[in-house]
Amino acid sequence: MSTSRPTEEKLQKVLAAVGLASRRVVEGYILDERITVNGEIAHIGQRVNRDKDELSFDGVPLRVNPELVYYLLHKPKGVISTANDPQGRKTVTDLVPAAPRVYPVGRLDKDTEGLLLITNDGDLTYRLTHPSQGVEKEYLVELSQKVSRGNLRRLREGIELEDGITSPAKVSQIQDGIIKIVIHEGRNR
């Protein structure tokens, strides 16, 4: 007896199984024409192939391939944002199940803590990290003192590093010693 899933399944069953909403709520989304299959408005009872069909909710693509996994991890200080460290230090992948093999999307420095996405979805990783995609990353930075207006302006204009000038950042001082910085490029430190 085969334990593999059927080639095609009812759309509302697939979307409920991947956590979009209950089957009844998904049926409401379908009736409201919020779900598309391969760019076409979906209908109740429609059958889809998880491996081939492209499903979207309100224009946002949905991942329904069960082989793809996504972890939202709060990376603690002292952990390396990599899948493997030749020096034997603890990595973010040590903090999630060993199978399937996953990789961090982007990076946070060793002494930085924060939210990090870890996945085996290469397409999503590319869309979130490749400079051509222009995805912004937001950080709250705690400093030992208030940042001067001049230094905030320098960050907004771009700073000279060894490998060139950084792209301008969106920077605001939340309170003394805490700034919010939004960047779209990945640069070391």
Characterise the protein shown here.
Strands 3-2-5-6 form a 4-stranded antiparallel beta sheet, with no helix packed on it. The protein contains 4 helices and 14 strands. The longest helix has 9 residues, at 23-31. A hairpin with a 2-residue loop joins β11 and β12 (164-165). It is elongated. It is α+β, with helices and mostly antiparallel strands.
Please render the helix and strand layout as text.
Blueprint: E1 9-10, H1 11-17, H2 23-31, E2 35-37, E3 40-41, E4 47-48, E5 55-57, E6 60-62, E7 70-75, E8 103-105, E9 114-119, H3 122-129, E10 137-142, H4 149-157, E11 160-161, E12 164-165, E13 170-175, E14 178-183
Antiparallel strand pairs: 1-4, 2-3, 2-5, 5-6, 7-9, 8-9, 10-14, 11-12, 13-14
